[in-house]
Specification:
CATH class of one domain: Alpha Beta
Number of strands: 9
Strand content: 15-25%
Shape: globular
Oligomer: single chain
CATH superfamily of one domain: P-loop containing nucleotide triphosphate hydrolases
Largest sheet: 5 strands, parallel
Length: 220
């Protein structure tokens, strides 16, 4: 049989979509950069569940699915979450597994906006996932952004800055890429470029290469 007709299952198999983790300290601008990534064709977001109260500007199912503590605990018991955590000892957040299943079914790359604790859980379960850390340009700029929101008291801002330090200190343990968000347009282009480069990696393009080689035919 010629090589042109001997295309094995590995060659023809469709690669699983990318799982992209995006994390960064509160105020780093990660949500904005996640939206930049989602502008790329072939991507889809996950929607986290949270027990925190819904803000007046938020719609259920767009940024978060807002659930009660009892509902969240029931999901944990059923094993519904890819990752979950209690943030600042107050409210719970979790990423339902259904989004991973939907990503694989639709063939779209999945974008997870989660914290470092969640990223560690996903990396353990899905070592092939790719994690991007969004870094603020300086501590001073991070504090300025947090205060500019006008949402938090001084005590809460201090707690967020302390958490930011802890997250930055360990980012090298879990993250494959780092984007410094000093200029949002440039940072957005960098985040998109990371995804494009991943899609063009030799490992992910190998099935296409093998199919192309097979189309040339060969000796028996």
């Amino acid at each position: 049989m010629s090589r042109g007709t001997n295309v094995n299952a590995e060659t023809t198999a469709k690669l699983a979509p990318l799982v992209l983790i995006v994390s960064g300290p509160s105020g780093s601008g990660k949500s904005t950069l996640v939206q930049k990534i989602l502008e790329l064709p072939g991507t889809m977001p996950s929607v986290s569940c949270t027990t925190r109260p819904r803000r007046s500007t938020e719609a259920t199912g767009k940024c978060y699915d807002f659930v009660t503590e009892a509902e969240f605990d029931a999901m944990v018991t059923r094993g519904d979450f890819l990752e979950y955590a209690r943030v600042f000892g107050k409210h719970s957040y979790g990423t339902p597994k259904k989004w991973l299943e939907e990503s694989r079914k639709s063939g779209l790359d999945l974008v997870l906006e989660i914290d470092v604790q969640g990223a560690a859980q996903v990396k353990e379960k899905l070592p092939e996932s790719v994690a991007i850390f969004i870094l603020p340009p300086s501590r001073e700029e991070l504090e300025r952004r947090l205060r500019g929101r006008g949402q938090d008291a001084d005590e809460e801002i201090a707690r967020r800055l302390a958490k930011a330090r802890d997250e930055i200190a360990v980012f090298g343990k879990y993250y494959d890429f780092c984007v410094v968000n000093e200029n949002v347009d440039r940072a957005g282009r960098e985040a998109q470029s990371i995804v494009t480069a991943l899609r063009c990696s030799s490992a992910r393009r190998r099935p296409q290469v093998e199919q192309l080689l097979a189309s040339f035919g060969g000796k028996d």
